[in-house]
Amino acid sequence: MAVHTVATTPATPSQDAPAVDLGPAVALSCRECGERFPLGPVFACVSCFGPLEVAYDLPTGDPQALRAAIEAGPDNIWRYAPLLPVPADVATKPSLNPGFTQLVKADHLAAELGVTGGLYVKDDSGNPTHSFKDRVVAIAVEAARAFGFTTLSCSSTGNLAGAVGAAAARAGFRSCVFIPHDLEQGKVVMAAVYGGDLVGIEGNYDDVNRFCSELIGDPLGEGWGFVNVNLRPYYGEGSKSLAYEIAEQLGWRLPDQIVIPVASGSQLTKIDKGFKELIALGLVEDRPYKIFGAQAEGCSPVSTAYKAGHDVVRPQKPDTIAKSLAIGNPADGPYVLDIARRTGGAVEDVDDAQVVDAIKLLARTEGIFAETAGGVTVGVTRKLVEAGLIDPSLTTVVLNTGDGLKTLDAVAPTTGPTATIRPDLDAFRAAGLATS
Amino acid sequence: MAVHTVATTPATPSQDAPAVDLGPAVALSCRECGERFPLGPVFACVSCFGPLEVAYDLPTGDPQALRAAIEAGPDNIWRYAPLLPVPADVATKPSLNPGFTQLVKADHLAAELGVTGGLYVKDDSGNPTHSFKDRVVAIAVEAARAFGFTTLSCSSTGNLAGAVGAAAARAGFRSCVFIPHDLEQGKVVMAAVYGGDLVGIEGNYDDVNRFCSELIGDPLGEGWGFVNVNLRPYYGEGSKSLAYEIAEQLGWRLPDQIVIPVASGSQLTKIDKGFKELIALGLVEDRPYKIFGAQAEGCSPVSTAYKAGHDVVRPQKPDTIAKSLAIGNPADGPYVLDIARRTGGAVEDVDDAQVVDAIKLLARTEGIFAETAGGVTVGVTRKLVEAGLIDPSLTTVVLNTGDGLKTLDAVAPTTGPTATIRPDLDAFRAAGLATS
């Protein structure tokens, strides 16, 4: 039983909604057929099996007042509570409080790439567990609270497991997360240290996912919120906060161009959704923006489809160092293609050597040590500038979604001391490094 | 030639000061004899070889207006520019912009420790390179700019090297940092990835330090700012920002009790200095506070002296997993003893097993994965509560100065999956984890 065909949990229009307060969220709606369902821990449309997403009744009225209210809010994701599926008092509940990470004006990188219109890196390694996953998990936690779940869970290849474990510990949930049994020890430690139950599954990530889908449909899984399965519609909305923050940090202005990594594709679609909401609410000027997707060549189903002019994404078997992007059958791939084409963007990929080069380029120019996914976006940005698809005279934002400390292996083989010497001045002089 | 006896660089009262703008900083003064010297890249008193520290002409006037100016400032260390040795326009210069990290209300940890008066963790793992070092380096960078240095340098056992490399990259300095040649590969990668020169020294950390002192006195080192040697008086001031942030985040109030890790002891003395400044400026009420120092038993020269009632700190040979605190001959040890005794605090230590337990306790209760230094402070806090030296009915702040990702080895041997199972429900049921 695969995730997209779980028969026990699709929503039904007739189902009674629990009386939940998720702020401006009023319903779930099917992205394919538009049918609406009450808010609940469901993720697939009963009519067409399309993915469900959160529908809102967003605040109307004076945009200036809304801007002021946001600016007076906490220095984290909850400043945008009026635009997210969370109750109004969310900031008073225990949470890792992710978000409002730095938007770094990357002048040295811009000079290297020949970008003159302003280049910014949105650095999500500043989140509590050092990846953007803290954003999406934080929203899923509030949904879990609303639905009365007491255990938080997920299937993960490592990073999400840590984010869920940490968030559950802070928020006072039990956690039980599932990973392939043969992960690297570092990732296992990061997933296990928060003290929840960590279960190694004898199989690969697909086996873990399949097992989780079975567990959701079984009495054994009652009371369990799987952040990336039955809470997925809420979880995904966390990525909208990236759009809000970027616009606010640019002075309530949309970037002209943005480069976003593509794994499942969800993040890219939610950033587009966030930009559109900001325009609809009058919080930013309605100007065109171009969205670019970035993949690693070793797992490039969406960029391959984009370049071939296809609407359908053909699955690939991943083989890349950018493991956090290694989803060979991305659920939101077709939506990514649509957004890239509609906005005048593109989807591009770089090979592993280019990923490593780009990680080092970003570190050397801006002092930001990115995860491999950040190497993908920076590398793709360079490629798109060279190809003339990114206009260097316009404002460009590049996402770094994670921290280099989590993917040290990618750069370790080619990163080391310039010299090793005896502790004396003659040896240092001989090394030729004394020019300042 | 050891650091404390470098003959070529002590300050002289007659020396002409460069015309530098370091904001409210007006001079250096000797902590031992009080003699004052012009601002410059010097660190030892010519008269008594005592350590120099920054003397200020701090803002006078309405505390409410100063509070408001700070609160309207950037969400980083530069909101406190009026109280730090930096020019007023510092926030416009390229910097990693560390600081204003989360002060986490740790209710679950408080419950475990029996603290009822409010327990907070100041989590400095949220800094750009994930330790408090970003604060001190950021201040040293501004001093280097003011003195016209073009190369940033340091001696390091790893973490500082990365912080300097990253800060130099962002700020547009060349960097050349020195480490013992036999560090773990992970630390070498973190130090090297920012693209500056990284020099392995065939010797231990003392050899590296000795070499750096020679280099400062040699024409080869001209134009070089060593953040923890000739820029040390400025560098150290960065730790004052921890005091300011904690007070502001508590609602402009000092904590009753604070637990601070002790390596060289500098951080603890600067937090005390910061608290005293806040009182003198009228920014907080003048109430007593107790400062507690925390060490690892395997490197506990200061807690040993404290318990023995000594004023002198006898050097030790470090042997502990808390490597970032493993300074066997702490320069500020006597000052730490003085502050702990004067404020009614204490200096205590925990063994390596207690450090590991405390790392896990903090992760499990609050979702914060701390470096070993954070295990030391949490472990010492528990010990001090049990001993009755920390009053559980009062507000207590515990510092976490770094990130668990940097010291995975400490917890790896005892942190792993709860169970490993086949991907089916029967196997999961048999594992006995399905209670929610």
TrEMBL record, chains A, B:
CDD domains associated with the record: Thr-synth_1
Gene3D superfamilies cross-referenced by the UniProt entry: 3.40.50.1100
InterPro entries hit by this protein: Ser/Thr_Dehydratase, Thr_synthase-like, TrpB-like_PALP, TrpB-like_PALP_sf
GO-annotated molecular function: L-serine ammonia-lyase activity; threonine deaminase activity; threonine synthase activity
UniProt enzyme class: lyase
Cofactor: pyridoxal 5'-phosphate
Modification N6-(pyridoxal phosphate)lysine, positions: 133
GO biological process: isoleucine biosynthetic process; L-serine catabolic process; L-threonine catabolic process; threonine biosynthetic process
UniProt keywords, alphabetically: Lyase, Pyridoxal phosphate
Pfam family, one: PALP
Ranges where the Tryptophan synthase beta chain-like PALP domain occurs: 96-402
EC number(s) on file: 4.2.3.1
Family assignment from sequence similarity: Belongs to the threonine synthase family.
Protein name: Threonine synthase
Organism per entry: Streptomyces gougerotii
